[in-house]
Amino acid sequence: MRTFSISDDQALAPIQLPQLPWENLVGRLESLVLDIRTFDAGLEASGLTDGWQSRCDMTEAARALMLDGQLVDLGDIVLHDAGMDVRSPTHELTRAAAALRARRTVMVRKPPWPLSIDGITALRGIASVQNDAAAPRNAAAKRVSASASDAALYDDEDPWLGHFADIDALLDRTSQVLAGEIPLAKSRSTLVYDEDEDEMTKEDLWLDVVHRTRHWPALAAAALAWDAWTNLHLHQRQPWLGLILAGAILRTRGVTSRLLPLASGYKTAKYRPTGRETPAQKIEGFCQIVSEALTHGQKDLERLSLARDLMNRVTRTCRSHSKLPDVVSLFLSRPLVTVALAAKLLQVTPKAVDLMLVQLGGALPRELTGRRRYRAWGIV
């Protein structure tokens, strides 16, 4: 495994931490931290934590690509996540799915794993062929490799043993990749990536900044980490990863237990880094992004609470074995729901879904498409 170290003979020098006027920033930082914790407490009390986070992850994946100048339909992301693509996935949709997968991986793994070398490598979903991350990481995988090598020597006794061992090793590695434990090992094309670009060294420099600011206020540390990520031009084909890791810093420092919608906050905030800002202005700009993210999250939580109250009035009178509460849960956890999507996830017929939607009556969320062949409803 690659270890965290920075040598003096590397081309890139360690990033110098700025001197900040803490007496002018501490009030703003404390006030915003209080707002974050208030929102976090309200989210926990509402009982909509999982649904809000699921919707947030999907909308953030679309907005992250929007900040990179690429438009992805939110409905395509929802259907692609459920394995129900209506058309061949585009390059933009694949990148949005990678952003969605990265956010979910950060939420599943415990802090501070996302802020480690292994975490960044797994979130990127790509590793160098020289990296030993592709090696077996548990005894079971090693036993499978040993059985495969034995089969190569004694393949006359059981010719199928070697093939079955290879299949078992492939399945074991696939399960580890899907769980986010190891990244996919891929070679880097020189047509896309610069041969002189040493991203591992830049990752070490960025992790050094995170390490040296561990005693700073959480918002200031996240702001400086995001600024360092941008200035180092880390992983330019995944620009959304910097904001995700900034949110992971806030989660690691205990400011919030959720992953805030920072891409939505950046989209609506007036702050845009130009490189001429002072360190204090950069922190203030990041605070504006977090404030806008909280506003966006609070509005979405209010919409979900109102829609849940309306639909619960109908579900109170339904039978105990009815699937209607499950339909309500789908609306609360996804930006949009189609008949085919609900039929697949609830394992019922499309006709049953149509009947349940009619049963909701006036509590049914707004129809988004206005078409007969492809109808979708969502809480907006």
Automatic annotation (TrEMBL):
Annotated DUF1612 domain residues: 191-313
InterPro entries: DUF1612 (IPR011670), HTH_DNA-bd (IPR021068), Y4cF-like (IPR048017)
Stored Pfam families: DUF1612 (PF07756), HTH_13 (PF11972)
Sections of the chain in a coiled coil: none
Top-level taxon of origin: Bacteria
HTH DNA binding domain segment(s): 324-380
NCBIfam families given in the database record: RHE_PE00001_fam
Protein name stated in the entry: DUF1612 and helix-turn-helix domain-containing protein
UniProt source species: Microvirga puerhi
